[in-house]
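Hi R.,

Here's the chain you asked about this morning:
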Amino acid sequence: MKFVKRILLLLLALILVGGIGNFFYFKNKFMNAPPSTITVSNLGEQFEFVWSKEKLNNKIEPHAAILVPVTIAGVDRTLYMQFDTGAPSTVFSYKNVLSINEKYGDIFQIDTLDNRIRVIDTSFKVGTVDIKASSISFRGMGNKIDWSDSTSVIIIGTVGSDFMENHTLIMDYKKEQITLAEFVPEKIEKEAEFLPFTFDGRKVFLSAKLNDTPANLWFDSGSSAFELIVDEDTFLELAKPGAKRESFLVNSWGSQIPGHNIESKGVFEFGSTTAPLTYVTNFEWPNKLMVWTMKASSIGGDLGGMTGNKLFLTKTLVIDSANLRYAVLP
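And here is the predicted structure, written out as tokens:
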């Protein structure tokens, strides 16, 4: 009996050590972001964004991603970047930058820094906001630009959450407008009911409630088309009884990821503002770190998951990253 107890205690210790190890691996790998290389100026003015569409199981999803307009000195065409708060840093796509240089004559200086190829000492506008960057990394090859197609929407990279660091981001989904401001505007300050959020690793985790249960939501505007993405166990728990899952594939940084939707029924509370939960989503992530992320976001006992823009389509989301607070306006 003592031998059995010792084995059980050893197994428990291994589980605990493994859990602690996984937690610190998660913190080091996922919740640390590289130092920001960009600075922003000319703040406080609204600018419009556009939605990109995507086909999911022969259905058109009209809110697949937020695209923000980009203007570059010396380039006579408006370009676009995806706005993705799930990305800690702003990045370019390699072939797109090469295409711009081929057509307009070395607009971007490309060099090797810290053993990585980057764009060095550049500036451009995102909407009305001026950006200067000491360096910007590449992520993804992208595609060579077909300049002969004057109607195409040319996407040259991703604007990450470094864009909003130490500032206030206002996303007015109804008007399809974004404002980056130095401070929360006085009108919003008076009307809004602010809640806390965390910004570790430049990732936005919103504190909310789902069906009166505390929820910790990773706000990833790059996962735009989904109300709530959770791990498989939570997916099954939140499924409406008798509902059938709908499966599909989505593109994530060049990889096809299997996903599943299932009907749910619930109400999110963001202070006094509410939003319905009509379905939940689960992905078969090839990267197990993403599975761990879904679970780690619930450390402390809260329901954990990822949400994109879908919950807020009729609302205004205000994220005051300097003061780690946010508000949802009806």
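One quick note: The domain at 38-163 is CATH 2.40.70 (Cathepsin D, subunit A; domain 1).

Cheers,
M.
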